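User: Show me an example of a complex going from sequences to structure tokens.

Assistant: Sure. Here are the input components:
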Amino acid sequence: MTLKEISCGKTVTVRKLEGEGAVKRRIMDMGLTKGVSVTVRKVAPLGDPIEITVRGYELSVRKEDAEKIIVE
Amino acid sequence: MPLRIALAGNPNSGKTTLFNELTGSTQYVGNWPGVTVEKKEGRLKGYKKDIMVVDLPGVYSLSPYTMEEVIARDYLLQEKPEVIINIVDASNLERNLYLTTQLQELGIPMVVALNMMDIVEKRGDVIDSEALSKRLGCPVAPISAARAKGLDELVNKAVSMKPSDLPAVSGFSDSIEKALDQICDVIKHEDGLGAYGLRWLAVKLFERDQDLKGKVTISDGAVNRIEAIIDKAESDLDDDAESLITNERYLVVADLLKDAYKKTSREKLSASDKIDRVLTNRWLALPIFFLIMWGVYTVAIQTVGDWTIGWVEELIAWVSGGVEGLLVSWGTSDWLVSLVVNGILGGIGSVLVFVPQLMILYFFISILEDCGYMARVAFIMDRIFRKFGLSGKSFIPMLIGTGCSVPGVTASRTIENDNDRRMTIMLTPFIPCGAKLPVFAMFVALIFRDATWVGPSMYLIGMIMVILSGIVLKRTRLFRGKPAPFVMELPNYKMPRLKGVAIHMWEKGKSFIIKAGTIIFAACAVIWFLQSFSPSFAYLEPEQIDKSILAAIGSLLAPIFVPLGFGNWAASVATLTGFVAKELVVSTFSLVSAHTTITFTPYSAYAYMVFILLAAPCFAAIGAIRREMGSWKWTGIALGYQTGVAYVLAAIVNLVGSLLFPNAEPIQLTGSLEEASEGAITSAAILQNPMIYVLGAVLLAVLFIGVFSRFKKVNPARSQA
């Protein structure tokens, strides 16, 4: 499953990150690393991006980037 | 050599507040060499000795990928400040300490400032700063930057650091440490390493850091051996080396927190969460957003902002009147009076007139930023604007631009991404500003017989050109850029600090006067000169504009405008004076029409309006563009693009018009043009409130996207394909 498919209010664990280079590093720099638990908080009024809680703070992620985050 | 303290920390960690507290009024804002990122420096308050504080760009990491990160990194590694103060948001400790683990490796004495402890205490959590200090191997000072608490102790600790007081280096897991040790062994005897520390180099080499390549030279043999070490680690641990290190750092942080952080509270909604529930609610978010925008627009542009412009204009008129009277009573010659009154005072006036409005606008923007709503603006609007290569935050510059492009362009400051910001600066002047209205109104009244569709059509064309340009330019090499994910922190809501807002406002006003003001002033003075003198340098009265150098230049330029349908000198002169301020187009036509016949067909008039709408804006806006782009090259690209689009579109209008209406009669501009223009504006033949159009356009887009995404949901198979 990818983070994009998770519905609001659910908490999941990051398994793997796809992509490479700047894109992957930036997502990881923000704390989305292997094993971290992520809660999907809400979807923006226009359906994209989504808001998640990770490592105790709120982060906005576009769905196209959320698709690269494999969770379970 | 003065002692230099570098302030490093995450965005939203209170770094700027701390910097303001530490340096007070001694700070000055420049640019980092070669880039547009602001560099703030100041002297440490309360110290006789010269101690400089440098505010580094807010960064989450020292990766080589964003401009801010490279700037912060280069400064720390190459300038080697004597001390780093690492400001850490205690209420968001985990992610903030991630940067700390990277700063530890730089080999520079460091003090950690633990900010926002009050929020942590309010939550009921406990941070053991002693334990944290022990683990990090450097002093930790709890502070509250916003309340100016704990700062003396922090500063004392920072200035008493000795060069040998290096922080501890957090160790990674055994397999990674082994690989790093091996790399250290390989490079130990290399010569081309520069002044970098061995540990830092080993980590960066392991990460295959691109930015390092040009900065150190390592023999080919060593490079191969390092590559073999990395390959082995990657295959053993099943991930790429860069991700391995990032993972390790967060593990180190988690381990640190086990000792130092006692979490007692849980899963209770904080006040910030409750506010956010309302402000980004699926149904309420957009109405609230528009309400806030409406409020900002009304105050900053329509009411208070507009009044201040009136006041400044009155003030300047009063001063000019006084000076003129004085000079005339001394028997000064006409041209000198005109030089002082119209050339110099007029030029200063056209700079100052915007300053109060800009400061009011910045008052609101600072509040929106400081309280945390600006990030939500991007969150709410992202979906619409990113389709046009813009940022969600581009909404604000465009909206403000309907009043005036100068504050509009300046408002683009809040957009972090360089491409998005440049594109916003470039396209904001397409939105018709208040000063273009009189020009449109004049043509509506005299050529179009008060047809009601003409005025709104200008707004429509402006917005369509923004959208089309965004879509097209996004694909060009200029704007394509590196792929970057849009991951944005949504900071906690906070009460904005009035002091910070005031400093911000003052900075904006000052920097506009200095950076944009000089350009505006010089350009206005040149136009005054060209308009007031004949080619043989004889002084001319305003009514003799037809004999001026400007008229001569106009005649030279006129052939260029033939394809657009207005190839006469009067139209080109009016275009030139329009650079001083767009409303001057009307008064120039009015001056010229007194003794020359000016005619327009409806379609050449429409082409002229399109040209005025889209071509390079007035000098004040050009100055603002230069100031925000930070480079003449980009300013040139923006102005060239705007004028090019204007030219092509106006030519198309003229061509299509002449084909559709071959028998259209030229109409003469006669009578009092200014009165006609004002009449059309007040009789509402032209729109009263451009805000309605902007909101209308956005609502349409919202509706479209809403319906489209519903449609997608019903047809999952379709969206898959």
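The lines above are the inputs; the final block is the predicted structure for all two components together. The longest strand of chain B covers residues 3-9.
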